[in-house]
Amino acid sequence: MQTTTSRSYHFPVLDLLSLSDVVKTVRKGDYLFYEGMDAEELYVIRSGLIQISKITVDGKELCLRVCQTNDLVGELSLFTNHSQYMLNAKALMDSEVVVISKTRLEEALYQNPTLNYEFMKWMSEQFRRTFTKFRDLLLYGKKGALYSTLIRLSNSYGIQTDEGIFINLSLTNQQLANFCGSTRESINRMLSELRRKKIISFSDGKMVIHDIDYLKKEINCENCPATICRIE
C-alpha cells in the first residue's frame, strides 16, 4: 500500500520553537482558543490533534482542518493592535502545544527576513485552503460539501489499495457533518446513497473510496494541487 500524496508545505518550525520554551497541555474536548478572543499567541503542536473550525450563522460548526504534530495553530493579525482569533481551535485528543507570544514573533519576523518570508508563505497557503473550502460549500451545496470533504480526506489520509483509497482516519458521521457545515441526518442519507452505488464502503469503521473520479465529476473538480485540497 502507498499514500496517495505527499504532505503539504510545512513551516520550518524549529525557527519558531527557539522563541519559546512554554508548553501548554490541552485536554480532549477543551478549546485552545475561541473565535473573537484576543489573539496574543501562536502555537506549534508538539503532540495530539487540534481541530480548526468556525461557527456558521445558523449555529452549526464548520470544521476547516485538523492540525497535527509540528503544525502551526492560531492565525494572527500581526503588527496590529487588538487583533482577534478568527476561528476556534479544539483538541480532538489530549494535546501539547508550544506557546509563542505575538510580541516575540513580531520581533523575530522583523529581524529575520528569511523567517518573515516563510511565515508569509505559510499564511498565504492557509488563506488559500480556507478560501477553496468556502468556495466548495457555496457553489455545490450539501452534497458538494460532502464530496469535496471526501476528496480532501483522500489527499490527507488516503492510502491506495487494490480496493480503492483507504481513509486512514476514523470519523463519526457527526464529525463529517462538521466538515460540511451540515447535519448528521443529511450526511447519513448521502453516505447511504454512496454506499448503495458502491462509490464507498466501510472497513473496521474507516472508509474506502472505490471511485474517486465519480466524486470529482459530480462537483466539477478543478484538480487543485493536493497541497491545497486537504483536510489537515
Automatic annotation (TrEMBL):
Where does the source fall among the domains of life? Bacteria
Q: Does the keyword RNA-binding apply?
A: no
Q: Which Gene3D superfamilies match?
A: Jelly Rolls, Winged helix-like DNA-binding domain superfamily/Winged helix DNA-binding domain
Is Protease one of the keywords UniProt gives this record? no
Q: Where is the HTH crp-type domain?
A: 140-213
Q: Name the SUPFAM superfamilies on file.
A: cAMP-binding domain-like, Winged helix' DNA-binding domain
Domain Cyclic nucleotide-binding, residue spans: 13-109
User: What keywords appear on the UniProt entry?
Assistant: Activator, DNA-binding, Transcription, Transcription regulation
Matching Pfam families: cNMP_binding (PF00027), HTH_Crp_2 (PF13545)
The protein's name is: CRP/FNR family transcriptional regulator
Species whose genome carries this gene: Aeribacillus alveayuensis
